[in-house]
Design brief:
Blueprint: H1 3-12, H2 15-19, H3 22-33, H4 37-46, H5 51-65, H6 67-79, H7 88-100, H8 104-116, H9 124-137, H10 140-152, H11 160-172, H12 176-185
Helix pairs in contact: 1-4, 3-4, 4-5, 5-6, 5-7, 6-7, 7-8, 8-9, 9-10, 10-11, 11-12
């Protein structure tokens, strides 16, 4: 049975049968320690009262199966389907893990969710922080959003040079809007030839 099918099977399990049995939980923990990604993700799903511990287990799983597969699993939890019950909290927790691991897409999707209050409580400060990380990870859209926040000064101290810097990064990543924003911000912050983007 493939990892993906095993994960789907785990999603369908009546979890109260597992979480109330310490021996079974210990067995999952032992298997996780041995490198079983399914066991790690199962524990992440079962631990609902400690975000960081649950996230650590999700991270162990993602380190085993890779970021791309973890993103797929996160989307599966968030959207749900005929075989899988939604678990939005765990889905976003997995996105958080992928963002920490360097996934531009994980940061971008999570930042969008917090910015708009999509299935999570709206928190634009968290979205701003995720956009900064996402930009570093290579998301041009995150760079654009970080540039916007620095230019507006609503969530952080207004800083046109930082806004221009993030717009320049977006431009370097191929985002034409980033290039336009960069040019528009030159009047507020003169060009530094060292960080000038490649138009």
């Amino acid at each position: 049975m493939s990892n993906k099918r095993i994960f789907i099977f785990i999603l369908m399990l009546p979890l109260f049968l597992i979480s109330d049995n310490k021996n079974i939980m210990q067995e999952f923990d032992n298997n996780c320690t041995k490198g079983n990604a399914v066991a790690c993700m199962t524990i992440a799903k079962l631990i609902t009262n400690d975000y960081e511990i649950s996230k650590d287990y999700a991270k162990k799983s993602c380190e085993i199966i890779g970021i791309d597969e973890c993103l797929n699993i996160a989307y599966l939890y968030i959207k749900g389907n005929k075989k899988t019950n939604k678990d939005i909290d765990l889905g976003y927790k997995i996105l958080d893990v992928t963002c920490d691991m360097g996934s531009a897409k994980g940061c971008e999707v999570l930042a969008y969710a917090y910015y708009n209050g999509s299935k999570v409580k709206k928190d634009r400060k968290i979205a701003f922080e995720l956009n900064e990380i996402g930009c570093t990870n290579g998301s041009s859209q995150c760079c654009i959003m970080a540039s916007y926040e620095y230019s507006q000064g609503n969530l952080t101290r207004q800083n046109y040079c930082k806004a221009k810097e993030f717009a320049g990064r977006a431009c370097d990543l191929g985002n034409t809007n980033g290039c336009k924003i960069y040019k528009a911000l030159i009047i507020f912050c003169p060009i530094d030839p060292i960080i000038m983007p490649k138009f």
